[in-house]
Amino acid sequence: VESPKIVVEKSTVPVRTAESMAKVLHSNKRGIKFQILSNPEFLAEGTAIPDLFNPDRVLIGGLQDEDGLGAANRLVSVYKNWVPGERILTTNLWSSELSKLVANAFLAQRVSSINAVSALCEKSGANVDEVARAIGMDTRIGSRFLKSSVGFGGSCFQKDILNLTYLCESFGLPEVAHYWEQVIIMNDYQKKRFAMTIIRELFDNVRGKKIAVYGFAFKKDTGDTRATPAIDVVGHLMEEQALVQIYDPKVKSEQIFTDMKAYVVEKSDNKTLKVEDFVFPQTSYLEAARGAHAIAILTEWDEFLTYDYKKLYDIMETPSFIFDGRNILDHEKLEKIGFKVYSIGRGK
Length: 348
Fold this sequence. Notes:
alpha/beta; two-stranded parallel ribbon
């Protein structure tokens, strides 16, 4: 490097990371100048390319001096080749770095909020989907991320909230840190609550019972299992010595075993559990359900809507249960077949 350069920070980072980067870069002995810009990605897994070409916004943060503003304008000119100018926001460095963390925290907060409501709906007889629709039509709230489920997963939400929590604690804001930490606590509660519902409805005894799990990825159209709710649900069932038969169209058996062994080490009170004795990945949805007492839907794969559930009913033990952790199936149709159906946030 012989001339001044612009360094663009793309990763999700703690606030003021750019300051540390600048100290390192400016310590060079040749006197070369660097400008650090923050340009966080807002790409969702499974839709990254469409998100890149048609973003809601592009965020560019830089120092608010002549050189910093000039560097930001250089990057703005790159994006203007395909992004309308009104969607390109320029801020100071620290606002840009913090905005990425806060965006993910707000999305996760909405999921945990509607999941908290789902628990109340189940007790009160309300329907969480109807409640979500009612409040989502309020333009001040909107309908996005109000789909109740077994919980959120993926590599970003939990990591960024923990980052935000640590940041608040380091700045002496314990009350703010506890507020954001509650989003994680609620998510963990939702996963455990779903698993405990399965155990309770199977007469408080799943020992030696086969339970089919449909979906192990944290969301459809990806094989990503990082922080997937399935890990905790399967873990709780495994601890109760259920025989869990898992089918996912994208996730490999090796990944399932790796994730569940990590669960035993990091979360389980029983460190002697042998995953291979309780977890059985399957290559067919039919084989996963054969001889099972229940099916648990943990990922919202579209193909799960196309299955012949009458055929599944015929190869399962009776009574046969379906626990719809994504609220995607036709529950009335399943009940006519003979299934006992349980869902998220729908009171009986």
